[in-house]
């Protein structure tokens, strides 16, 4: 008997249970538990099955949300998984870390009045169940193709493209400068949002599907780009953005001032069991310290919550705008506040103070002035409003820009935008270099995992079309030669 849907009037929205603050701030495990099968069914049954599902429209992957909710409510989980994985290469990751409040759930019609369907939590439940029950099978293409594709970068964009290309039978080689695949999923995002076994399980699945990983290989240093192009029929660049933005203020050279990604990578490596000398020496460990994190995005939120877990004495987040204008996800800010982080709104740093080591961050108050061309109010300093925050560790989380790939790789003809991101023709995901495609943050600038997956899928489809067209052209050429001879 099909499940009764549209239960939103009688069933309240319930997120998965959240671990108590006192418990969760002592480890790096995820803070949400998983839905029980009963809770998943009940929550999925709240969906109204909209004729025009705005949740789907606002999901960058256009996931078929109403249908997999209906199948979940019906207890047909294997079919729900088939559907969820048809449009998303990592539903278990997106279910955990998409900012759903800005995407699918934020646009669910129930959000106004009844609170949205808990789409992300159901998506995670479906896929975790599929892994546990052995429904996630390695890719076995109908036929193998001899053309190989080289992918630079094993983040979500590269991995999504790799899986899609394997499905078509291409020989897929993924190169990454790190010793593990996963990109920011493995070394950037902390375990309390995304536990590492979840990422490693996905990578194992790709290995079993025949994707070949070449780790510890930095293209441009260990492997020249020109050689990579000669080696493969097509190349996809999915290298992300890693150049940290900085603050140019007095005292920047003091010890105790670190970059967000260095800090988060050390913490993730430590939790993975790697030796991390800079952590063991205390340089990248917040234990027992007064910590000030500068910035207001997702990276800043990850830093403050990591510092809490490492046993910092105090953790403050300095942000130049106010709460309403913060780029970080509302849910993440809420979690951080629950965990004891103090937000110092409308404040910007003006100097790092100390002898050899940092002792305080000097800041001044800001007020929001006239809106800029994008409509966002520009912050401006309030004269005479300086104050000091004690700090043994300051973490700079001000965003990322692309590295200068044309210079680093010695390929000046690689086209870039004025922001330094790679320039592509979006309709074919290709740069102006023949057979060189690009996807993810290196094209969009710092963005989201779900957009990286979307780009990876689009690039894979474009590469497939490109290689098919080459085969056709080759055959035509041979036929014309045969006719002429
Ligand atoms: P990346 O994930 O950056 O992967 C790029 C890979 O390329 C890396 O593994 C790198 O080692 C490799 N590489 C680079 N150069 C070379 C080279 N020359 N040779 C070989 N390999 C190379 N998004 C969300 O949706 N939700 C979140 O909660 C969230 N939290 C975040 C927290 C932090 C701290 C950060 C920094 C980002 C967060 N994001 C989040 C954003 C998200 O992680 C990125 O948008 C996404 O990972 C981009 O994917 P990508 O594949 O383009 O690049
Ligand atoms: Fe929502 Fe992200 Fe899943 Fe799309 S991929 S349905 S936006 S959680
Ligand atoms: Fe269901 Fe909400 Fe999507 Fe409508 S918008 S189909 S109620 S999840």
Low-confidence stretches: none
Q: Could you say what the CATH topology of the largest domain is called? A: FAD/NAD(P)-binding domain
Tally of DSSP helical segments:
18
Spatial strand sequence of the major β-sheet: 3-2-1-4-16
- How many domains? The number is 3
The portion of residues forming beta strands comes to: 15-25%
CATH class of the largest domain: Alpha Beta
What is the oligomer described by this structure?
single chain
Tell me the Rg in angstroms.
24 Å
Percentage of residues in helical conformation: 25-40%
Task: Look at the structure and give the mean pLDDT.
Answer: 95
Number of strands: 16
Bound molecules: flavin-adenine dinucleotide, iron/sulfur cluster
Intertermini distance: 68 Å
Category by helix and strand content: alpha/beta
Largest sheet: 5 strands, parallel
Shape: globular
What is the CATH superfamily classification of the largest domain? FAD/NAD(P)-binding domain
Element layout with pairings:
Blueprint: H1 21-24, H2 37-44, H3 54-57, H4 65-73, H5 77-87, H6 91-97, H7 119-132, E1 148-152, H8 156-167, E2 171-176, H9 184-187, H10 196-208, E3 212-215, H11 225-231, E4 234-237, E5 243-244, E6 257-259, H12 260-272, H13 277-280, E7 290-294, H14 298-310, E8 314-318, H15 330-338, E9 342-344, E10 347-354, E11 358-371, E12 377-381, E13 387-390, E14 393-396, E15 400-401, H16 405-408, E16 436-438, H17 441-444, H18 449-484
Parallel strand pairs: 1-2, 1-4, 2-3, 4-16, 6-14, 7-8, 7-14, 8-9
Antiparallel strand pairs: 5-15, 10-11, 11-12, 11-13
Helix pairs in contact: 2-4, 2-7, 4-5, 4-7, 5-7, 6-7, 8-18, 12-14, 14-15
Bound molecules: flavin-adenine dinucleotide (FAD) and iron/sulfur cluster (2 copies).
The site of flavin-adenine dinucleotide has 35 residues, from helix 8, strand 2, helix 14 and helix 18.
């Amino acid at each position: 008997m099909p499940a009764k849907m549209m239960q939103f009037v009688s069933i309240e929205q319930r997120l998965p249970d959240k671990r108590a603050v006192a418990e969760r701030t002592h480890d790096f495990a995820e803070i949400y538990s998983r839905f029980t099968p009963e809770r998943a069914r009940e929550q999925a049954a709240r969906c109204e099955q909209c004729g025009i599902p705005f949740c789907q429209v606002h999901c960058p992957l256009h996931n078929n949300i109403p249908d997999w909710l209906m199948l979940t409510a019906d207890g047909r989980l294997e079919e729900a998984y088939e559907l969820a994985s048809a449009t998303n290469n990592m539903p278990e990751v997106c279910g955990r870390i998409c900012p759903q409040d800005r995407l699918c759930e934020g646009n669910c019609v129930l959000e106004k009045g009844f609170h949205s369907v808990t789409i992300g939590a159901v998506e995670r439940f479906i896929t975790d169940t599929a892994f546990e029950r052995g429904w996630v099978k390695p890719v076995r293409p109908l036929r193998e193709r001899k053309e190989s594709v080289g992918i630079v970068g094993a983040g979500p964009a590269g991995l999504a493209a790799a899986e899609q290309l394997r499905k078509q039978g291409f020989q897929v080689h993924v190169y990454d400068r790190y010793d593990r695949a996963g990109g920011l999923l493995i070394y950037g995002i902390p375990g309390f949002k995304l536990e590492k076994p979840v990422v490693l399980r996905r990578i194992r699945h790709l290995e079993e599907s025949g994707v070949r990983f070449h780790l510890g290989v930095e293209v441009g240093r260990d492997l020249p780009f020109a050689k990579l192009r000669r080696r493969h029929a097509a190349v996809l660049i999915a290298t992300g953005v890693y150049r940290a933005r900085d603050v140019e203020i007095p005292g920047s050279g003091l010890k105790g001032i670190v970059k967000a990604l260095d800090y988060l990578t050390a913490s993730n490596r430590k939790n993975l069991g790697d030796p991390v000398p800079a952590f063991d020496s205390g340089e990248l460990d917040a234990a027992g310290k007064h910590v000030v994190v500068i910035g207001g995005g997702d990276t800043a939120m990850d830093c403050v919550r990591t510092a809490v877990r490492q046993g910092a004495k105090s953790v403050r987040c300095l942000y130049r705008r106010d709460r309403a204008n913060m780029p970080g996800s509302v849910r993440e800010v809420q979690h951080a506040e629950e965990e004891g982080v103090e937000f110092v709104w409308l404040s910007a740093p003006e100097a790092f103070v100390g002898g050899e080591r940092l002792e305080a961050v000097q800041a001044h108050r800001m007020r929001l002035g006239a809106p800029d061309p994008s409509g966002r109010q520009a912050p401006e300093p309030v004269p005479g409003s300086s104050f000091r925050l004690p700090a043994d560790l300051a973490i700079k989380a001000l965003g990322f820009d692309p590295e200068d790939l044309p210079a680093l790789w010695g390929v000046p003809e690689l086209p870039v935008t004025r922001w330094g991101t790679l320039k592509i023709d979006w309709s074919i995901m290709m740069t102006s270099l023949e057979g060189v495609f690009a996807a993810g943050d290196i094209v969009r600038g710092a963005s989201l995992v779900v957009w990286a997956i979307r780009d990876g899928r689009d690039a894979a489809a474009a590469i497939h079309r490109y290689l098919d067209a080459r085969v056709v052209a080759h055959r035509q050429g041979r036929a014309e030669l045969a006719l002429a001879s």
